[in-house]
What we know:
Chains A, B: This is Acetylserotonin O-methyltransferase. The structure is a homodimer of 355-residue chains. The first copy, chain A, has 15 helices and nine strands. The longest helix of chain A has 21 residues, at 17-37. The N and C termini of chain A lie far apart (52 Å). The first copy, chain A, has 355 residues and is α/β, with parallel strands linked by helices. Residues 132-159 of chain A have low confidence and may be disordered. In chain A, helix 3 (53-59) crosses helix 4, helix 8 (138-147) packs antiparallel against helix 9 and helix 8 (138-147) crosses helix 14 (300-313). Chain A has two domains: 17-117, Winged helix-like DNA-binding domain superfamily/Winged helix DNA-binding domain (Arc Repressor Mutant, subunit A, Orthogonal Bundle); 121-353, Vaccinia Virus protein VP39 (Rossmann fold, 3-Layer(aba) Sandwich), CATH 3.40.50. Chains A and B meet through helix 1, helix 2, helix 4, helix 5 and helix 7 of A and helix 1, helix 2, helix 4, helix 5 and helix 7 of B.
Amino acid sequence: MASRNMDLSKPPKVLPRVIMEVTHAVERTEMIYNAGQLRIFDRLSEAGRPVNASELGKAAEVSPECYGHMERLCCTLTHLGLLEKIVDETGMKFQNTEEAELYMTTKSPYSLLKLTDAARHNFDIAEFMKGSGVGDTTRTWFSDVEENNKAFKEVFFRFNRYYQKQDAYSKTCLHLLKAFDLSEFKTVVDLGGGVGSVCRALQRFYPGMNVINLDMPCVVDYAKKQEVDQQLDKLNYVAADVFSDEPLPKADLYIVGHFIHMFNDDVTASILKRIRQFIRPGGAILILEKVMEDEMEGPELCLLYSMRMALSSGRGKERTRHEYHQILTDNGFDVPQFFIDNGYGCYDAILAKKL
Amino acid sequence: MASRNMDLSKPPKVLPRVIMEVTHAVERTEMIYNAGQLRIFDRLSEAGRPVNASELGKAAEVSPECYGHMERLCCTLTHLGLLEKIVDETGMKFQNTEEAELYMTTKSPYSLLKLTDAARHNFDIAEFMKGSGVGDTTRTWFSDVEENNKAFKEVFFRFNRYYQKQDAYSKTCLHLLKAFDLSEFKTVVDLGGGVGSVCRALQRFYPGMNVINLDMPCVVDYAKKQEVDQQLDKLNYVAADVFSDEPLPKADLYIVGHFIHMFNDDVTASILKRIRQFIRPGGAILILEKVMEDEMEGPELCLLYSMRMALSSGRGKERTRHEYHQILTDNGFDVPQFFIDNGYGCYDAILAKKL
Lengths: 355, 355
């Protein structure tokens, strides 16, 4: 393979399919990010009828010579599956697909608009690995948080885009709260609940459930401010630090989503032990993380996350089914049940009873 | 659609598949870009045998605690199809796939390494459409070039990354030079040939063909410097400006690749007329551009390019088969023959005889 003689008198038989596909992927992200910036999805939603590109262009205050470009952008979004195109004698009109209506409009409670912004930023694996320490800033947060909340707090406020992104991700896992029947759990704590997307969904799906959003004090302050700004119903909050010795609230179920994967096995074991202390008899832990296939062959999203976890925490990783089984049973939990969300998503669901 | 009532007591039935797929795409680009930065593909090629992640890590001078991250990155590249994984009793080893060997190594004449860097940059469609004029800088180049070569020359040297990117793209079309039998053409001019990838391929595929690389004077200077730096065989160059009144060299075939799509129909028509003047009787024009499906429904790459052309030139666009037919027959060429490169690529091929 490596010593292949390349015959330059003929075009290569193998074309750069992966490379072109991957390098063009950035442009797809740009299309949906910019469509959000131009409020295309919001305007189509507000209009309540198919709208042509000139009208969208006029509303977005783009120069009239760009109305044609607006039509081109809408055609691209149609191809991607975010708009539907209707052609009649007056030309092309567009409307949101259900996916765009749910996830790309500002007013939707499931809005992922902020994710499309957050997704555009490069990260530097090479620099990180070479230890120059100028990789993704989030890397320092989680090292610091274990030792020094103050440092975390300082960077947190400078980078609250990070939290908006986490919130956008958590919205993509809400359907997984139905993967297991959670109705037996009366008091539920979402550890690292951020601005409360998971807690709000639980309250909707399980009326009467006592739901507590637990996070770092600075995150709780931020979440409460978001609540006031966005006129949301109030949640129960507990400001606590999982790495301190303070007691956590007792609960029947602890949920940890996009959390365990930030830590190496030693730190994860200590977190699981500590959480277990505060789960009532008969209670359980629900882990929301993507589960890696054995041999690290997929799913792709899990491979990508695993690399990102290395970058963002300096020690995190995604785990296989076997690894979750091991770390849970080693730390006082029963054999876990897995719900693998095949074909989609940032998360699978892992439920394990306290032993 | 737009007035859909969202039932918040249930998780949405439609999941954000497109949005998550598209927003994660940036990470795939980062993986292959960073693998290039860490010289993974080069080292596997040089080793001539499967290599494990620790060895790759050591060679790249990453900190030893990152060898595990290196393995994770290699697993991700395996999933993407750029590496092959061999597992034996000593663990995982990796080697380049044929695609990686051809296109991701520095020494390959088909190397696309520079494209993976160029592909990482955001562009701002929304700002461009709103006319703030701070969109992609390339936009000003092609406006300027028609009026003022000096302005073009100034920006050109500041942004020669642009030319490296164009060169990477042109390497992906070399196989299309075999789409039609070009052996009857004795003298061939590649108009806008840049650093000469297409010309070099033509010389290899058609020994004896007289090949001329024609571009702006500043580009020819740059190309000649590249030739010296990289110890390449010398090409025939002509420095000329297609927008001036200077004569162009007579030829049997003019090739224009990633060129026509930068201009609106009026400018394109004038370019075609001017080129036609210098094609000998019996000669032809070979256009290398992606052909848009009718109704602008695809292919995706063509939709993405069309938007980028709007941004980069302020007036460019990709054209349908019908539009190419029209503009060529209106400007003194015979009914064009199309070679549509289904399933792949930045380019299709369109050959039209001079009438």
